[in-house]
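Me: I keep going back and forth on a fold encoding question. No explanation is needed for now; the record alone will do.

Assistant:
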Amino acid sequence: MTEVDQAAPANAPVKPAGAGGPLGRLGEVRHLGLVAALVLLAIVGVVTRPENFATSSNLVSILALASTIGVITVGMTFVIIGGGIDLSVGAVMALASVWATTLATQAYGPVVMIVCAVVVGTGAGLLSGFLIAYGRMVAFIATLAMMVAGRGLAQRMSNQRTQLVQPDNSMIVDLSTTRVLGLPLLVYVFALVVLVGWLVLNRTTFGRRTYAVGGNPEAARLAGINVRRHTLMLYALSGLCCGIAAVLIMARTTTGSSTHGDLYELDAIAAVIIGGTLLTGGRGTIIGSILGLLIFTVITNLFILNGLNTADQLVAKGVIIVAAVLLQRRSLKSAT
C-alpha cells in the first residue's frame, strides 16, 4: 500500500484521469474530442491549402516545431498537476541555449554543450523550486522573476547577438538533419521524452505523489509525503525539460539566442489546459497535453499557410484558451 493510499480514507487525493469514475471517463471523452478536433483541423488544411498542407515536408515541419515546445509541455504538465505553474520555461530554454553556444563551451565539443544546456536548465528549475518550496514564494511570482532574470542573463551573456553552432559540433545539427523513416532525430527525442514522462506519471510512486500533492497538499503531507521536496523536484524536472528543449532548438536553428522560446510558456500552459489538466492541480494527463499541443501547432501552421499575421494568431489562441477553460468548468460540473 502506498503512502497516498494510506491517506485515502480521510483525505482522498484526486485520482489520475483514466483511473475510473466520472472524472476518469471525462478524461477519456476529452481525448476523443481532441483527436476529433485534430482531424477537423486537418480537413480544413486540406480544403483551404490543398497544395501545401498535406505535403510530407509540411507535416515534418509541424512535428519538428511541436518537438521543442512539446518537451517543455511535458515538464509543464507535471508542474501544473502538482498544483504549480512555471512562467520561466521559455527564458530558461533561451538561457540554456546561449550558455551552450558560447565559444568557450563549444571548444569542448557537442557532448559538453548538451550537458551544459541540461545542467543550466535543471539548475534554473531547482532555484525556482527552492524559492517556492522552501522560500514560501508564490509560484507565479518566483517563476516570473526567473523568467525576467533568465532572459536578461541570456541577453547579457550573448550581448544580444545570435550565437552560431560551430561546424565542429555537427553532432547537434545532425539531430535536425539526419532522418530515420523520413522523420528528423529530434522528433524521436521528443517521442522518447513523452514516453518517459508518461511512464513516470502513470507507473511510478513519483507520479502518484504528484497527483496527491496537486490534489490535496495537506492530505499528502499527512500521508508522509515530503511536499516541499517533491515540489522542488517538480520544478527541477521542468528545468531539465527546458535544457533538453534548448538542445533541440539549437539543432533546428543551429543557433543559441536570448530570443529563443519567446512566449513558449504561454503555448505550453495553453496546451496543458486544452489537454484537460486542471490549473488547480491534481488531475491531468501527458497524452492530453500533447494532443493540445498538436492542435495549437496545426492551427499556427494553418494561419501561416493562409497568410494570416501573428496578431491574428495571438487573438485566436486567446479565444481557444478561454473556450477551453470554460469547457473545463462546465465538464467538471457535469461530472460531479
Summary: Strands lie at 163-164, 179-180, 183-184, 255-256.
